[in-house]
Design goal:
The structure holds two protein chains of two kinds. Chain A is mainly α. Chain A contains seven helices and two strands, in the order αβααααααβ. The chains are: A mainly alpha, B mainly beta.
């Protein structure tokens, strides 16, 4: 009897957890040949330049022109930023921006502008530019891991 | 004032509809007006009518009837089913995600639920909704929300809040009280989540009515600067409400709304009294505002938790800074009751005693934490004490009846600054006991010293600033230096809003503290037309930035432009182009990092046990994993760095044997994936005796309760990409000691 109840609880718990997305595939589980890291040149310099202008317009008044944040406002470069996002993906970051930023003009930024701004942020954090632009597609961005430290060459 | 649309919105949540119906049936009132048991679980305790109304509900029953567990601010529960032997076996009992309680998810859920009368109550979501949850499953029973529109959008305090309060007359009238984002006090029927029509106007009191600026001018009800994150305080049949305003770093006027603390009759919502932390002419302390400056300054609210001694009939108010945080040239004088602990009478609101911990406040040392009531024994003398944890990391201890310091607090000379127009207090109070429990000064000895090169770079960093001991004054920011006065523990250090805890058996305060919150305070003239104040926080050579209130922009109805498809063309380059990107890892902290590492050496975060009979620190340990940036830093490769702890404002719960507190930051280690740990410390020694995994950092203080023989710990987590969630932990059935299985312990 007790066992059955426990199984029941377990089944309910599993269904419940599944419903709230606990078992949703994590970025790592999705890893495919396309999975990349921010160290692999995932944006272009030109894109980061565009992004810097959008950043100045819509982000700098709170996060600072040097991306340093202040008090309650998180830094977008440096240790605090890298600790916050290490192990997540550029897709996670772009979704966070899309859902909540900028707070006083939500929805103002298009997806393209968001990835441009992210390119600027990646550049400011020392991640190298490459030959292809960061694409405004969540499913693609979710394949790009944010890694605070450069992985050792294979 | 905009029309308020009130809705109790179980209809939005299909599950809830059935539940409300079910639970309404199970919770009918008997003819005598007493609650009857919830037959489905058999756990409902019948509440006997008591004099104070609240006496039947207590942590000693395994409940958590106040935000801090009790009115004394202790965060203490005598439960001990979860202990050092089994803490690591805790499992997630349930989760409650707050994403849909508002127009979008929240990323800073700071709440602590109550558990009272067999039900859990909490605030949650960007709408700051109130939810009632089943304690064993987290299942939603009812949800209540106020749709306040523009008024919430204008609020200086926009997160979902720290929580709410409970009241019962012991005869079946059970209420939940909370303050909306738009600063309204709402009374709800605890069974149904509907407003109590006889309270205020249709269940609400507009708290902005009666809030004034200047010499008594009513603030605008829609746009006026007043809100609150902390909970109402219910003491007997009185509910006490504090007040918060926007951040005081870059204010648009020194003549801001004036803080006040008000008490209301809990049955009717009628105001009983108001205390003015900026005394009006004829009131005690008005003469500490020289040149009539009381009339042209504001703030000085009470934004954190208030505590009450019901027996003595005394209320303890931790008052914040006057306008503005870092410049007080428009308010010469000591400015009572700015940054003071004030004791007032519960019945009348009249001042009994006060102690100003910072004279003429200009450091943002505003009193951040619930005062803790502690009955202690010093050198054989029994003292009814009140202990005040602070951002300064001093624990101020007073006789709570008389206001006499338990150990001498000395007035010592402090340095004067040179900001034009500023007025400086020549002395400040220094407690002689207990010793400071975290850093108060940035000294050369505190600098990063993992390697000689890093230390040399650290020395270069602090050369840009004016440095000095505690009470190092703000300075005008100059391009050639100093950029600012370097301080620690001012804005974010020491113990912040989560406060500390207390063990009434061993007379020990457990205080968390940030130990690496370096804050450069530099002043600049505000841009033309921005403010009537002479100086605001800023940095020479950098564009001016407005410091918004906590949670700015997160309220459910905050402006959202329709998302549009835009060509990827950049806007015209603005007048001030973006600064050249910082080198990897140089940002944050106002330029006070070294190669991306904290300027100061570890520990970055602390947990201290302070014995109040002796006034001594019993033990002190670093709290929190070593941050990823330190553990993975290329310059530190191969070094053996002991656990550093983490900087950040987190709170704790104290149980019979443990102190429990989560990490303020996420890490990814070989032992666990990206996440944070909820840690248990042996109360007696500070030894870590267990740690369980959470998917994100602790963002709201934990609480604990017993339900159907099972002890639960609930904690709020959120941050970064992880949206708000309450998580409940409990032991699996086979791990629970059977000796402690009753619902009503002790």
């Amino acid at each position: 009897m007790k066992v059955r109840i426990r199984i029941k609880i377990a089944v309910t718990a599993i269904i419940g957890l599944a419903a709230i997305g606990v078992f949703a595939p994590t970025p790592r589980a999705q890893e495919t040949a396309q999975a990349r890291s921010v160290w692999e040149g995932v944006y272009t310099e030109e894109q980061a330049k565009r992004g810097a202008a959008f950043y100045s317009r819509d982000c700098a008044s709170c996060h600072g022109s040097d991306l340093s944040g202040a008090d309650e406002i998180p830094a977008l470069s440096g240790p605090a930023f890298l600790s916050n996002w290490d192990g997540l993906t550029v897709g996670d970051l772009s979704e966070r921006v899309r859902i909540t930023m900028p707070p006083n003009k939500q929805g103002r930024l298009s997806r393209q502008q968001i990835v441009d701004i992210l390119s600027h942020i990646l550049g400011a954090n020392g991640f190298p530019a490459g030959k292809t632009e960061l694409e405004p597609k969540t499913e693609v961005l979710k394949q790009i891991r944010i890694e605070a430290t450069k992985p050792r060459a294979k | 004032m905009s029309r308020i649309i009130y809705r109790s919105i179980p209809a939005l949540l299909v599950l809830a509809v059935g539940l409300v119906w079910m639970t309404m049936g199970a919770w009918g009132q008997s003819k005598t007006g007493k609650r009857v048991s919830d037959r489905s679980t058999g756990n409902r305790t019948t509440i006997n009518s008591t004099k104070g109304g609240m006496a039947a509900h207590s942590t000693s029953n395994g409940e958590w009837p106040h935000y801090t567990g009790d009115l004394a601010g202790t965060r203490y529960s005598p439960l001990d089913q979860i202990n050092a032997d089994n803490f690591n076996k805790l499992e997630v009992a349930w989760r409650f995600k707050t994403d849909n309680l508002g127009t979008r998810p929240e990323y800073k859920l700071e709440g602590t639920p109550l558990m009272v009368g067999g039900m859990l109550y909490a605030t949650a979501g960007t709408r700051r909704s109130v939810v009632a949850l089943k304690p064993e499953t987290g299942e939603l029973v009812w949800v209540h929300a106020e749709f306040e529109g523009q008024r919430a959008v204008n609020s200086p305090r926009q997160l979902s809040g720290r929580g709410l309060s409970y009241w019962t007359d012991g005869k079946g009238d059970d209420r939940i009280l909370y303050v909306t984002t738009g600063y309204r006090l709402v009374a709800l029927d605890a069974r149904t989540g509907t407003r109590i029509p006889s309270f205020g106007k249709d269940g609400m009191v507009d708290l902005k009515v009666g809030v004034v600026y200047g010499t008594g001018q009513q603030i605008d009800l829609e746009k006026g600067d007043a809100g609150l994150h902390s909970t109402p305080i219910v003491a007997g049949d009185v509910v006490i409400i504090g007040m918060a305003m926007k951040e005081g770093m870059t204010v648009v006027t020194h003549n801001n709304a004036k803080g006040q603390v008000r008490a209301f009759d809990i049955r009717t919502g009628k105001q009983l009294w108001a205390f003015h932390p900026i005394p009006r002419p004829g009131e005690f302390g008005n003469d500490t505002w020289l040149n009539n400056s009381w009339a042209t300054n504001g703030n000085t609210g009470v934004w954190t938790q208030i505590t009450v001694d019901n027996e003595l009939g005394l209320v303890y108010l931790p008052v914040e800074s006057p306008t503005s945080d870092f410049y007080g040239g428009h308010r010469p004088g000591n400015n009572l009751f700015g940054e003071s602990l004030v004791c007032v009478d519960l019945k009348t609101g009249k001042r009994k005693w006060h102690f100003q911990v910072v004279h003429h406040p200009i450091w943002d040392y505003d009193l951040s934490s619930a005062p803790i009531l502690a009955d202690i024994n010093v050198n054989g003398r029994a003292i009814r004490a009140v202990a005040l944890p602070t951002k300064e990391a001093f624990l101020y201890v007073f006789d709570r009846v008389t206001g006499e310091p338990v150990w001498p607090i000395e007035e010592r000379p402090v340095p004067k600054g040179d900001v034009p127009g500023e007025w400086y207090s020549p002395t400040q109070p220094f407690p002689t006991k207990p010793p400071a429990y975290a850093r108060q000064t940035v000294t050369v000895d505190d600098l990063i010293d993992f390697t000689p090169e890093l230390r040399a770079q650290g020395l270069k960093v602090i050369e840009q600033f004016r440095n000095g001991p505690i009470f190092n004054p703000p300075t005008l920011s100059k391009p050639g230096g100093p950029l600012a006065g370097l301080t620690i523990g001012t804005t974010n250090g020491g113990t912040n809003w989560p406060g500390a805890g207390y063990d009434p058996e061993t007379h020990t305060v457990y205080a968390p503290a940030s130990n690496a919150s370096v804050t450069p305070i530099g002043l600049i003239e505000p841009p033309e037309g921005f403010s009537d104040i002479k100086y605001v926080l800023g940095r020479a050579g950098q564009p001016f930035r407005v410091s918004e209130g906590p949670g700015f922009g997160s309220a459910a109805d905050f402006p959202q432009e329709p998302r549009r498809r835009a060509a990827p063309t950049a806007p015209a380059a603005p007048g001030t182009a973006a600064a050249p990107p910082a080198r990897g890892g140089e940002g944050g902290g106002g330029g006070t990092f070294v190669q991306g590492l904290p300027l100061l050496k570890p520990p970055y975060g602390l947990l201290s046990a302070i014995n109040l009979d002796k006034g001594e620190i019993a033990w002190q340990v670093p709290h929190g994993d070593t941050p990823d940036v330190v553990r993975n830093h290329p310059l530190l490769k191969g070094m053996n760095i002991p656990k550093t702890g983490q900087n950040g404002a987190v709170g704790l719960v104290v149980t019979k044997t443990l102190v429990i507190m989560g990490d303020p930051q996420v890490t990814t280690t070989s032992a666990h994936p990206r996440g944070a740990m909820l840690r248990a410390y042996d109360k007696a020694t500070g030894k870590e005796v267990g740690a369980i995994y959470m998917p994100a950092q602790q963002s709201g203080s934990p609480m604990t309760y017993m339900h159907n023989g099972k002890q639960y710990i609930v904690v709020a987590v959120s941050g970064g990409a992880y949206s708000g969630e309450y998580i409940a932990f409990a032991l699996p059935d086979e791990e629970r000691p059977t000796s402690n299985g009753g619902d009503r312990q002790r």
